[in-house]
C-alpha cells in the first residue's frame, strides 16, 4: 500500500500551479514517465482515465457532491477478486489496462481516508493546487510544503499584521 500511497499523491499532485497557471503532468512524455514509475503503460487511454480520476478525487477531497459519481465512472470496470491460498485471502485487482492504475489510485485514496480520517487534504494556500497526507502526530499540517507554501503564507500573514498595526 505504501507504493500506492505514493501513486495517489503523484496523481493528485500532477497539476501543480506554476506562475499562476496549472501545469498538466498527466499528458505526453511527462505523463508517460510518471505512470511508468508505477508500472503503467502510458497509453493515451490510461492517461485520460488517470486525469479523470485525479479531477474526481480532487473534487471529493474538496467536498464537491458530484465528484463521487465522476470517480465511479472512471473505474466502472474494475473489481477486486479473491485469490484463496493456504495463507488466507489475497484480493487481486481486475481491471482493463486503461483503468488499472486509476483503480489503484482510487483504492489507495479509500485506504488513506479510512486509515487516516481527515488527514488527506488540499494545501491551505488557495493559490496552490497540491494535496498532502498529514502523517504528523497532532494532525495539524496545512501546507503541501513548509518550504514553499508554508513560508509564503506565514510571510503574507506577517505582512498583513504589520500593515494593520500601522
Can you give a write-up of this model?
The chain is of the alpha+beta class and 166 residues long. The protein has one domain (2-120). Helices cover 51% and strands 14% of the residues. A hairpin with a 2-residue loop joins strand 3 and strand 4. The protein is globular, with a radius of gyration of 18 Å.
Helix-strand blueprint:
Layout: H1 2-12, E1 17-18, E2 21-22, H2 28-36, H3 44-61, H4 67-74, E3 79-85, E4 88-94, H5 97-115, E5 120-122, E6 131-133, H6 146-165
Antiparallel strand pairs: 1-2, 3-4, 5-6
Overall number of structural domains: 1
Largest sheet: 2 strands, antiparallel
**Average pLDDT:** 90
The Rg value, from CA coordinates, equals: 18 Å
Helix share bin: 40-55%
What is the general shape?
A: globular
Name the helix and strand elements from N-terminus to C-terminus, one letter apiece: HEEHHHEEHEEH
Sum this structure up briefly.
The protein has helices spanning 2-12, 28-36, 44-61, 67-74, 97-115, 146-165, and strands at 17-18, 21-22, 79-85, 88-94, 120-122, 131-133. With 166 residues, the protein is α+β, with helices and mostly antiparallel strands. It has one domain (2-120).
Characteristics:
166 residues, alpha+beta, two-stranded antiparallel sheet, 6 helices, 51% helix, 14% strand
